[in-house]
Amino acid sequence: MATIDGLVIKDAVKVERIGVHSHIRGLGLNDRLEPAQTADGMVGQLAARQAAGFIVKMIQEGKIAGRALLITGEPGTGKTAIAMAISKALGSDTPFVSITASEVFSTEINKTESLTQAFRRAIGIQIKEETEVLEGEVVALEIDRPASGVGPKVGRLTMRTTDMETIYDLGSKMVDACIREHIVAGDVVQVDKASGRVTRIGRAFTRSHDYDAMGPQVKFVQCPDGEIQKRRETVHTVCLHDVDVINSRTQGYVALFSGDTGEIKAEVRDQINKKVLEWREEGKARFVPGVLFIDEAHMLDIECFSFLNRAIEGELSPLLIMATNRLISKVRGTDIESAHGMPSDLLDRMLIIQAEGYTSEEISRILRIRADEEGVKIDSKALELLTKLANSTSMRYCIQLISVAEVLRQRSRKESVTTEEIGKAYKMFYDSKRSEKFLTDSFIQ
Ligand SMILES: Nc1ncnc2c1ncn2[C@@H]1O[C@H](COP(=O)(O)OP(=O)(O)OP(=O)(O)O)[C@@H](O)[C@H]1O
Ligand SMILES: [Mg+2]
């Protein structure tokens, strides 16, 4: 989440309701990176979760340049779920960019540009900035309005801390800012000297008895101590890609809002790299290398793979995590058969985590967690039946049946979902195996 001038900007597109992975809150590991059978919404998959935990640790310690991770396993074994758990475990301060391999193939920008942008979105920079502010309790605010009613206003602001009191002359801009913020005597305010922005921090405690009625939004604070003029250190976190966009002359910062960034010249990127590395040397900026997650990685082609080979070895590279459910298949764009549909030189650079299948008990637990997440009451017999069905069909299909069964329960006004609703839902919607059988039975005789 970014903040601009105190406004919190939420990434509205990625806000999920009850999504497929919304029950996952982390990797479910303890301090010694040992996984619990069920924790943070994750069930089983112990070895993979522990390995993912080590990766998280490495990211947090910043030891990840030149690394890549591949999560493999059959469809529905929780590869994407593990990646989501990694993102949750990292917390919101570390950038986590998640894309699907097919997003790279767009007609507007070429594949490598699209990958480069994704890479650079996954690198955060924390830029430190020192600003001078005036902070104190307003003792009096006098505004002189011109007698004719038009023309610039001037005024005086008396501010105090517990140690001193000073009068400042205000120009018309500052007067307007104070009027806009409804500043009155007794407010504790902060004035940014560079921009002239006035922010109300709260009301002074000493004034808490001034009025009988006050809304719940009024915050009481202590009158500041020390000098009125203070130095404040603020830290802005931006990603390298945003810096690129702002500095690319053809696009400008407006492109940040439209998302229509086009291609960014290599020279611009080189210059920015040089600049931010300089800032790092001077202690003004800190890099926060994050994670770029590419799901369905077998959809990338040979050109993308060769680009990745080199990109992960760059100095400013995030950790690359890829997931695929392919076993041996053709590398896209070639006739070469290779493990996971990826060239062997890239596979050689990667650490591989294998997601394994689930036991019936684990499936039952995952289904129970999903039912809880969706707020669906399900009785134990129904859950047993659902688990059995998951063994003959797939876990994913049974997760979907939960919501269908819930709609059926509402219609029959029952307390909880029973085997009857599960049975009905099962008959109503086919799973892939039955659908395939239906096709073969009716067309190939
Ligand atoms: N260990 C687990 N704990 C809790 N939920 C899980 C676990 N594994 C999988 N799930 C849930 O099961 C569903 C299917 O898993 P997921 O989408 O991660 O499979 P996948 O391995 O990415 O499959 P595909 O190869 O088809 O992309 C998701 O809703 C996921 O959240
Ligand atoms: Mg997946």
Automatic annotation (TrEMBL):
GO terms for molecular function: ATP binding; DNA helicase activity; hydrolase activity. Pfam families: TIP49 (PF06068), TIP49_C (PF17856). It comes from the Eukaryota. Its main location: nucleus. GO terms for biological process: DNA repair; positive regulation of macromolecule biosynthetic process. It is found in: Nucleus. It catalyses: ATP + H2O = ADP + phosphate + H(+). PANTHER family: RUVB-RELATED REPTIN AND PONTIN. Belongs to the RuvB family. This is RuvB-like helicase. The lineage of its organism: Eukaryota, Metazoa, Ecdysozoa, Nematoda, Chromadorea.
